[in-house]
Structures are given as C-alpha cells and as structure tokens.
Amino acid sequence: MTGLTGSTRRQTAQRFVMQIGRRDIDQAIELLSPGVRYHVLGNHALAGTFSGPEEVRKHLISLDDRTLGTFEAIKWEDWLVGEDHVAALATIRMSAGGKLFTGRHLFLAEFDVADMIVGITIFFEDEASALRFFGPPALPEDHQP
C-alpha cells in the first residue's frame, strides 16, 4: 500500500464517521461498497449485522431515532491505518429517554481495491453500558406474548 492509498482510506473513514455524527446519513452511505457488511457487536437492541447500503442506512437512521439526534463523537483519540483497514478510537456521547451514554468505541473499517468501505465493525469498550442504554434485543414476532 502506498502512503497515498492509506491517506485516502483514512480520509474516507473519517468522512464516514463524521457524516454519521452530523446526521448526513445519505452522504455517508455513498462511501460504502454495494457489498458492505456492517457489524455492531454486543447483545443490545442495536447490535447485529447489516448487509448492503440500504440495511446500513436503516440501521443508522434507527441509531439517530433512538438517540434523538444526540449521537456525537466528542473526542477522536487515535487513527490506525493498515493495508486494508482503518481503525478509529473515539469517545462517544449520546442520550435518550433520560439516559446518558458516554463511552469509547472502536470503529474498524475494511476497504476494497476501489477504496470503498466494504466492512465496518463497531466495538463497545463497555458492553454492559451499551445494553443498559439501548436495552435488550427485541423478541422476534413469533415469540411475542
């Protein structure tokens, strides 16, 4: 990988996460490969795997709706650039329903040969806090009381 490729990928990753924070979801989606897979790790209501730009878009809208537009990165701590991946460590703040969440996330973006984002994985530093903030996953319709 040349320095220019790493720089381009870092800029793309930065634009993606900054656009999410500014609620520019449609612009963020333009940076994704058609085959993108977006993983939010954990066992909370927003955890899961989302395939394709439209599923990612719906997930990001759900995040924005649940946090009433308060999701923001308050401090970008580090950016790590590798051959195919860019990782960003950030302190995130959001609120909803009288609850405040402040915690560190690791965003891991994977790139294809066209420098489009083909994979994103979100790691929470404290999964228990994410579960308290977002709540447990919803039961499937066939398991509803």
Please render the helix and strand layout as text:
Elements: H1 3-21, H2 25-29, E1 32-40, E2 48-51, H3 52-66, E3 72-81, E4 85-96, E5 99-111, E6 117-124, H4 127-134
Parallel strand pairs: 1-6
Antiparallel strand pairs: 1-2, 3-4, 4-5, 5-6
Task: Describe the protein's architecture and organization.
- The chain is of the alpha+beta class and 145 residues long.
- It has 4 helices and 6 strands, in the order ααββαββββα.
- It has helices at 3-21, 25-29, 52-66, 127-134, and strands at 32-40, 48-51, 72-81, 85-96, 99-111, 117-124.
- The longest helix has 19 residues, at 3-21.
- 20% of the residues are buried.
- Terminal residue distance: 54 Å
User: Residue-averaged pLDDT, rounded?
Assistant: 89
Shape: globular
Give me the side-by-side strand order of the main sheet: 2-1-6-5-4-3
Task: Please count the beta strands (DSSP E, at least 2 residues each).
Answer: 6
Number of domains: 1
Structural class: alpha+beta
Low-confidence stretches: none
Strand content: 35-45%
Features:
Nuclear Transport Factor 2, Chain: A; 4 helices; 6 strands; about 40% strand
Brief sketch in words of this structure:
This protein has 145 residues and is an alpha+beta fold. It has 4 helices and 6 strands; from the N terminus they run ααββαββββα.
